[in-house]
Amino acid sequence: MNKWNLIILGLVFLSNVCAYKILVAFPYPGKSHSILGEGYVRHLLEAGHEVTYITAHPYKKPHPNLKQVVVASVIEKFEFAQSLDFKKMLSKEVDFKDMFTMYEIMAVIGNRSLTHENVQKFMMDPNEKFDLVIAEWLYHHLYAGFATIFNCPYIWSSSMEPHPVVLDLIDEVGNPAYFPDHMSPVSPPLSFTERISELWNLIYLYRVLWFVRDIEEQAFRDSFGAAAAKRGITLPTLYDLKYNSSMMLANSHYSLGDPQRLPANYAAIGGYHIEDEIPPLPKDLQKIMDSATDGVIYFSMGSMMRSETLPMELKRKLLNVFSKLKQTVIWKFDGDLENVPKNVHMVKWAPQPSILAHPNAKVFVTHGGLLSTTETIHYGVPIIGIPLFADQFLNVKRAVRKGFALEVPLGYDTPAKLEIAIREILSNPKYREKVKELSFIYHHRETKPGKTLIHWIEHVIETKGAPHLRSPALHVPVYQKLYLDLLALIILGLIIIKRIVNSLCSSKSANKKKGEDKKKKRS
Ligand SMILES: *[C@@H]1O[C@H](CO)[C@@H](O)[C@H](O)[C@H]1NC(C)=O
Ligand SMILES: *[C@@H]1O[C@H](CO)[C@@H](O)[C@H](O)[C@H]1NC(C)=O
Fold first, then answer.
1. Which residue from 114, 217, 222 has its CB within 8 A of the most atoms of ligand 2, so it is best to mutate?
2. Atom of ligand 1 nearest to the CA of 152
3. What is the distance between the alpha carbons of residues 375 and 404, in angstroms, rounded to a whole number?
4. Alpha carbon of 358 to those of 280, 289, 381: distances in Å?
5. Residue 282: cis peptide before it, omega within 30 degrees of 0
6. Where does the UniProt annotation place the signal sequence (predicted)?
7. CA 155 vs CA 120, 166, 248, 457, 458: distances in Å
8. Among the atoms of ligand 2, which is closest to the Cα of residue 215?
9. How many other CB atoms are found less than 10 A from the CB of residue 199?
């Protein structure tokens, strides 16, 4: 084949790759959620598609096929961030395990980003058209509304391991006897009391969903009503819309969570946000890590907690613990500290994947957010988890159960407990061996998660919403699933049979009595 043939072949190939217009709706102001949103943006742009990205943290690398709708001002009014304060957590002033508050706050934040003027202007523009919407599910269903506005199919994106509320959207809730809620620290096999408490959790969850339903419907109309009216579309109820997605792409994988029975319209793409090529470390960090012959302990409590809210007493005690170690400590901390020991390096920003990928990284002290626990399995580094809120408790418990982590609760005695945990995890090789084993399972897939993501997105667009993937369970009411109608029929049948038998018996005995009476009369 000569050069020209090759070029022509290349052009034919290129023209066969269709560029689709895809809306990635990830306006939630939490930084880790933007990292997940950016994962979609990056893979879609690389695959040649045109992307519009709704976000509070704009994507830094400009691209001719990328348009952004920025809702940055939502961050300022982000109550959630205000409550992410170590002091308040230590005094138990805020409790993120309360589901009512969680669902309500999330719907309010969702409504706030959607009623943002940039989003409203964007939806009102009649030139905006899309082939597909990717809507993040995060304790509310509002972003599905874009599918109605742009009259196209949509895919749910879930940032967590599968759990009852998200599976309900595409199939049905799992059986609580072996499928615990994502906020429960228990794992199968469940004891009798755990099974009862999981059943109760499920009922409670449905009470919460019932409670927020009106707020969500109202927010849905507040957010999309104007744009729908302008485009001459009648809004469905959010309740109908939320069960109408084509599928769910989820940041999950059985190496990270538990094995679960999943429907055909669920694709696990855990780890898709991690780039194949690890960006090089900044020169100073590279030098620190290369020269740390005893290893590096990386300490980061995530991007949401404000380090300056950590009480002084705790900061001093932590530094004191670190000063006793021969390892180098890299502490991601956004405040200023005095009298920092020589082996401790404070950094305001840390390229987490590049640090974890370094062969000298020995332990990762983390809050246990799902992105961090994913990255730690990706690169094979054991962790010490100090969970603070939301799914972090479960992530850390799960990591401990899987055998590559130790848990240290947040409290004024954290530094002392942390010291014991660090010494244990450094001296006992079992944690490292376990995380390497899981890392192998994690990487051993048919295709890389980014490829899987592109495959399913194109599949949904090319098959016009992929109706063939939808679970028939979506349209079966609970009473039919539990065969309550059959049970009712059987009970009714039994009652009728009993009545008939009773009346037969009583008429028989009445006849008998009559006969006896007659006999008596005759005699
Ligand atoms: C559900 O999706 C289909 C196709 O994607 C669409 O035609 C239909 O109008 C949607 N229904 C609702 C209630 O959004
Ligand atoms: C949604 O936001 C708009 C504008 O910010 C506000 O007027 C409306 O009350 C909000 N709706 C709900 C249900 O919070």
1. 222
2. 5
3. 13
4. 10, 7, 10
5. no
6. 1-19
7. 21, 12, 6, 8, 11
8. 13
9. 13
Residue 162, phi then psi, degrees to nearest 5: -60, 140
Token pair for 143: 């972003």
Which parts of 17-134 fold into alpha helices (H)? 31-46, 79-83, 86-90, 99-114, 117-124
Cβ atoms within 10 Å, residue 303 = 20
Q: Check if 218 has its Cβ closer than 6 Å to any atom of ligand 2.
A: yes
Pairing of strands 132-137, 21-26: parallel
Contact 340, 319 (CB under 8 A): yes
Q: CA–CA separation, 218 vs 110, rounded Å?
A: 12
**248 DSSP 8-state letter:** E
Residues listed for the chain:
523
Atom of ligand 2 nearest to the CA of 219: 13
* Residue 424 φ/ψ, nearest 5 degrees: -65, -45
Q: Which residues contact 310 (CB under 8 A, 6 or more apart)?
A: 86, 335
Specify the pTM: 0.88
The separation between the first and the last C-alpha atoms of the chain, rounded to the nearest angstrom, is 121
Residue closest by Cα to atom 14 of ligand 1: 241
220 CA distance to ligand 2 middle (Å): 9
Write down the mean pLDDT value for the chain: 89
CA-CA distance, 99 to 93, in Å (whole number)? 16
pLDDT in tens, 144-195: 999 999 999 999 999 988 988 999 999 999 899 998 887 787 888 899 999 9
